[in-house]
Hints:
globular, alpha/beta, five-stranded parallel beta sheet, 313 residues, single chain
Amino acid sequence: MRLHHKLQCLNLIIFIIIISGCLFFKKIDNDLSQITFKTTEIAISFVYPKHVTKSLAQLGKMDEVNKYILFLNYVPKCGSEILILLLQKLQGYNNYRHVRLKGGSTKVLTNLQQDNVVSEIYDTVKAVAVPVSFDQHVFFLNFTTFDKQFPTYINFIRDPIDRILLRSSKKHYNYKCFMSKRNDCNINNGQLYELSVPYFCGHDYRCLNLDNNWALQRAKDNVVKYFPVVGVLEEFNVTLEILEHKIPYFFKGIQKLYQNDYLHLQNNRKKLIAPKLVRQKLAAVLVNELDFYLWIKSRLFQQLQILYGDHRH
């Protein structure tokens, strides 16, 4: 009986020891967990955060126009030759590169040819790794068609009547021929011609149609969206002023450079003289071209007015 009582007491003591031990080790385990957690927090505070490049999806939609790619799809005989000289000179001062794209003899391109031009532009940008300006004698290219950002477009135009007269040495532009009844030299509404509007409209066949209102509106819409500056040859100084103000990355210092080194080229430009009747006849068939020219000129002076509060002639 006494032995049985002793065994019960011993079992009770062992049970108490086991329960106490479990509680003790649980407390230690909890304490260690807290210590480990705090230690981890301290360790993390001393680790420099890694820079993780965001994916395109995380970046969201890019700007439609890339301000570090400039594209002059120049209209011939409108003053772009001098602008190209200025761009070539300024690239050293403003830390960009100017590239003259080949293939300018063909203005109307197939989809494949357009894709090749867009690819060449973006391959060049990747290769040089600095902002790039390009020039090419080509009609307006829609870069989003090829899943690319638009470049910042610029261009120059001039009075369309003067542009026609400037090419009067060619049979189809001989102003004496305009007064005749020959079909091979008269300019007629509804016919296809390479004037100024297609350089802002694009490669749709309607863009080449002289009296196509859709082409005129498309050209204006593209100017508003993608051409921060379209210069006017007759307002060359004003154009350079707006270029330097609106696109300073590429055109900083252009006015001073032009005045010092290239002013004489403009001063030597020949004045175009033609009978009043010829001008009247051309104006009657260049209605949309004149509309576009006057709209661009008005836009240029509106930009000057915003810059200075009034416009100067």
